[in-house]
Amino acid sequence: MSQQGQHSHFIVPVKYYLRTFIALLFLTVLTVVIAQFNFGALNLPIAMLVALVKASLVLMIFMGMRWEKGFTFVLFISSILFFGIFIALIFADIDTRKQTDPLEAKPFGLVSPVRPISSGNGASEHH
Amino acid sequence: MSSSTEFVKHEVAHHFVDAEQEFDSAKLGMWTFLVQELLFFSALFVAYAIFRFLYPEMFFEAHKHLSWVMGGINTLFLITSSFTMVMAVRCAQTNQNRLTIINLILTLIFACMFLVIKYFEYSEKFHHGLLPPALFTGEGVAPQLPIFFGLYFAMTGLHGLHVLIGIGLILWLIFRSVRREFHADYYTPLEMVGLYWHFVDLVWIFLFPLFYLIG
Amino acid sequence: MSNEHGNYLTNPKGIWSWLTTVDHKRIGLMYLLFVAISFALGGIFAMLLRLELFFPGQQFFTAKEYNQLFTLHGAVMVFLFIIPSIPATLGNFFLPIMIGAKDVAFPKLNLASLYIYVFGAIFCLASIFLGAVDTGWTFYTPYSTTTDTSVVTMTMGAFILGFSSILTGVNFIVTIHKMRTKGMGWFRMPLFVWSLYATAVIQVLATPVLGITLFLLILETTVGVGIFDPVLGGDPVLFQHFFWFYSHPAVYIMILPAMGIMSELVTTFCKRNIFGYRFVAYSSIAIAIIAFLVWGHHLFVSGQSDYAAMIFSLLTFLVGIPSGIKVFNWMATMYQGSIELKTPFLYFLSFIFLFSIGGFTGIMLASLSLDVYFHDTYFVVAHFHYVMMGGTVIAFLGGLHYWWPKMFGKMYSEFWARIACLFIFVGFNMVFFTQFLLGAKGMPRRYYNYLDQFQPLHAFSTVGTWVLGAGFFIMLFYMLHSLFRGQRAPQNPWGGLTLEWQTSTPPSVHNFDETPIVTGGPYDYGKEDAHV
Ligand SMILES: [Cu+2]
Fold first, then answer.
1. Which end of chain C is less congested by CB atoms within 10 angstroms, N or C?
2. Which regions in chain B score pLDDT beneath 50?
3. What is the rounded CA–CA span in Å between residue C522 and residue A118?
């Protein structure tokens, strides 16, 4: 009988699910409590760390990644990696938008030859 | 444990060699789809990151308009529904059809509660005019305040849409469970919707601190 | 022949059996029909554009109509034609057969992709009548959020088409992982399958970002999100980041399957094993990964920071490595092969020639200082068309001629096919090589008018489109002739070794009468009885 179907699949013991559930509840309360205190610049990283732990619990236990084959893991990790690339390269732009290479600004004295057609009131008023 | 003969027998589709290949394919397909979902949301998170980086004070002021109590309760609802979902799958694996149905109904209830609270949150925002830019009539401390609510509605709205779709899927599962279609030898749809539902939970786990708990 | 009753074209019969089919071969053919119609439509738009440009000054269209035409040409060609062109037609048809499977992993989902595609196409075409979009196919903000044309309808269409593409990608990934027949190890897969795999990875990872970008654009034009609106503190350049995070990898969705076809053609028509199988296979994956690192090269002059531009420029050069590996390996495969100059192989040679030019000019455009000059000139237009048309379309035609006998069981006229190939090759170079010259002289893109000094080159380019169009017209003629009057095709007209040539022509409903078992590599020419 087990030959024909999914009988052979590993059935996760209830205690895993129950403990995960309790841990998630606890972490939710924890993150709310932490948010009441001010850690300055660390606020966001701490909140994200807790969220990350919660997410990994859901991913590993509830979604069963822990018992999954390797490729699923590679797939998921790589998607997070691409998300990382996305955010990192965009910040490479946003974070350095105002900086110009000092060489460009000073010795050559480069000034754009382009001038707005109507200097003065035109540019700011219509949009 | 009841014997599996009283369940509806599942036919393996013609192009698969056996049930194992069919199940594995479905599962890999679902994971691939979730990867797609992750990147679907990713651009929104990137946008969030950029504007929080550019206007940290505005975000801090704006988040005071959101109620962390409501957000927190919603988090608990979704986590609980994830737990009942996983229990529904497990009960199908052990041929406990009645418990599968009960767990699915519980999941459905928590999902609906989530949306009810979301409804109250949204209507409060509508009342104060704290809406995306074109509709924004609220009073703001910072000129960029509409962006916060643009992002808030785009992200939670899209997430809410996923919850709504999830509710439809769970209803479909309940319908099929009542017809005794899921059992130890076949529970693929349960497992798939389960994965989807946990993913919806996963997104909310990040949305909650990012919008409601800005320290 | 006994299987005449059982082949997929005739069994079962009736239009309804086609519309509800879950057979990947029939779905592939229906895609082929829609893709061909889209190509014709986009081609007509292109001919009209070129006609306007024959002389300077206004000829047939106003400036706005011209803008609408080039937008439609771009959008139809990109979203309706070239993205689904190879994967959804030839890929759908041959991927399962090449790995010895009866069908793709999710046949119903496959049919759903087709209908989603049709649904999205309806939106795109409807937008023509609701005030055709004039933003260019890239929909850049802030113009796209302020123009009075039907941006929402068009982007809705592209959004829906994106999901068609994603679902095809999901289907292919699972099919390749789970549906391979006995003995079909990863490194016994034909290289076309490898390239489809890399394509599917990009489709799944990048297309959702386009979806969300267009979703945000729709929101921005309706209720507003503010993130692209500088008045509120938003950033219009952000739209370009989001858009190109998808749309650069999308270029590899277009070119990778074309490269896969090249590997099939070169082995079959040289009767040699591919030189460096693993390198060619891995380079597909490498291209897929690098694809995600280079999108900023579209933003060199749009206000992106200098540092980001330098990073993106450097990363873009890396694309040359795996692309070069492929081209060199194809050349090395030809060395000492017994080359047959059949039509598909003529397309192979055209591809090598045109893609190399497209690739090298790509390197030029990736270098910052050159791009500042070339940006938004005809040089970019020419580069893009050398890669997309000289690469993908030529490969698509090569693949179509290669597999046509297998798909329909009919041969086409080799003579007319060669004539058409010649017309297309010559016409293409007339149109687009000219545009390199125009661009280098400073002719900006997307203008209906130009300075008098450019007139001879513009006129030459326009005449080229007539030659090109004649080539396609000849093709239409002999293809239709082949369908209705063509000679019956043998099982294996070119002496190919991959699995699709081992089954009957046209294939039976379940592809194989017996499930094949694979015992060797896909291109073991020279070994007796190598396959199956
Ligand atoms: Cu690019």
1. N
2. 1-4
3. 67
Tell me: pLDDT of C199 over 90.
yes
**Subunits touching A (CB < 8 Å, at least 3 pairs)?**
B, C
pTM score of the predicted model:
0.92
Which residue among B50, B85, B213 sits closest to A32, beta carbon to beta carbon? B213
Q: With an 8 Å Cβ cutoff, is B46 touching chain A? A: yes
Give me the number of domains chain C comprises: 1
Question: Cβ–Cβ of C307/A90 closer than 8 Å?
Answer: no
**If pLDDT is split at 50, 70 and 90, which confidence band does C416 have?**
very high
Q: What is the mean pLDDT of residues C233-246?
A: 92
Q: How far is CA C286 from its chain centroid?
A: 19
**pLDDT tens digits along C260-311:** 999 999 999 999 999 999 999 999 999 999 999 999 999 999 888 888 999 9
Burial of B176 (0-12, 13-18, 19+ CB in 10 A): middle
| Domains identified in chain B and CATH numbers | 18-212 (1.20.120.80)
- Shared domain for A28 and A44, answered yes or no, is yes
pLDDT at A99: 74
Q: Which of 81-100 (A) contact B at CB < 8 A?
A: 82-83, 86-87, 90-91, 94-95
Residue type, A113: P
CB-CB under 8 Å, C102 with B15:
yes
pLDDT of residue C96: 94
Compute, in angstroms, the gap from residue C67 CA to the centroid of ligand 1.
Answer: 22
Tally of domains within chain A: 2
Within a domain: residue C510?
Answer: no
Does A79 lie in the same domain as A53?
Answer: no
Count of C-beta atoms within a 10 Å radius of residue A26: 11
Domain membership of residue C172 (yes or no) is yes
Chain B touching partners, 3 or more CB pairs below 8 A: A, C
- What is the span of the domain harbouring residue A81? 68-95
Whether B57 and chain A come into contact, CB under 8 Å, resolves to no
**Element containing residue A43 per DSSP (H, E):** helix A43-57
The residue count of chain A comes to 127
Across the interface, do A85 and C293 touch by the CB < 8 Å criterion?
A: yes
Separation in Å, CA B20 to CA A72, B31, B186, C178, C179? 16, 17, 10, 10, 12
Indicate which CATH number applies to the domain containing C241.
Answer: 1.20.210.10
pLDDT, one tens digit per residue, over C7-44 is 888 878 888 889 999 999 999 999 999 999 999 999 99
Ramachandran region of residue C276, left (φ > 0), alpha (ψ -120 to 50) or beta?
left
CA dihedral C408, C411, C416, C418 (to 10 degrees): 90
- Alpha carbon C452 to its chain centroid, in Å, reads 35
- C526 in any annotated domain: no
Average pLDDT, chain C: 92
Domain assignment of residue C259, given as a range: 15-502
**Predicted complex ipTM exceeds 0.95:** no
